Amino acid sequence: MTLQELEAVALGCGLKRFVGKQLADWLYKKQVSSFDAMTNISVDARQALAVRYEIGRHPYLTQAVSADGTKKFLFQVEMNGTPQFVETVYIPTDDHATLCISTQAGCRMGCRFCMTGTLGFHGNLSAADMLNQILTFPDLTNIVVMGEGEPMDNIQPVMRMTEIMCAEYGCGWSPHRITVSTVGVGEGLERFLKESECNLAISLHNPFSVERAESMPAEKLRSIEKVLSLVRQYDFRHQRRLSFEYILWHGKNDTLRHARELVRLLRPFAPQCRLNLIRFHSGVNHAFPATDEQSMQWFEEYMQNNGIVTTIRRSRGEDILAACGMLANSLKSEM
Fold this sequence. Notes:
Blueprint lengths: L2 H10 L5 H12 L13 H10 L9 E4 L5 E9 L2 E11 L4 E4 L3 E3 L14 E4 L2 H9 L6 E4 L9 H12 L11 E5 L3 H10 L3 E5 L5 H7 L8 H8 L10 E7 L7 H11 L6 E7 L13 H13 L3 E5 L22
Parallel strand pairs: 4-7, 7-8, 8-9, 9-10, 10-11, 11-12
Antiparallel strand pairs: 1-2, 2-3, 3-4, 5-6
């Protein structure tokens, strides 16, 4: 809940309005998981709150640990009384702790190369479901909204989550510590660009509309040209970052023809944007063979030489199916 809603909760329980601010402090700054821990609120008030409300925090069910230190966690969420499951990935480095969170149970975008797409769509997560993933892990430095689901297809809870994460009454994060990914869903993307200062990552993967549609059906609803035309209306010259995700497949999108067209698409955003090249895990889907290391290096150099800041993104957690495009609730089978 937002501060205004928490104040309404306090008043509805016969308490003073300022108790709403106390609730926000306990929930988002101290991150407690029970009313009993809220020691500056009277016992009677805590009991009144506990009768009518619950905190909404619950632990993960299972976890898997990669050889590279990446950890994948399974959370249960309720969808109209039916339990569903989503995965969350914790990615530690020497100086960062990044959490990749899910926004939907499954996904309806149907990208042919993504294991999450094989699950189908089972429902939208609430802002509470997303915050529960985040608040489970202390000392995070960054959040990437790139797990199961398409964030812009569930925009209202995503915006509520980012508001609480960044609000002074909430967790007090800079929005530039949060990156939200999308394939380019229309109305949700428009609202995100207008109302949020969080970073944006666009899953591009092919610069040609017809070819992109073959692997990413969302292209038929809104072409990448239209997505980029919308994004060009907003300012990314300062702290807010714009990045493009590009998985490389042998012979499908790693040729000179693709590189040239990709430069044409991204040049209007240079030098503010970054292109992240991603290794594909060919054991997952043989219809999309991974490009070789030499081709990846060539592609990176070509983009860099043409003014596009480009990085080959290190793959993490492949051995536990935690890498990009591999989330498919595999941990559920271990329960």
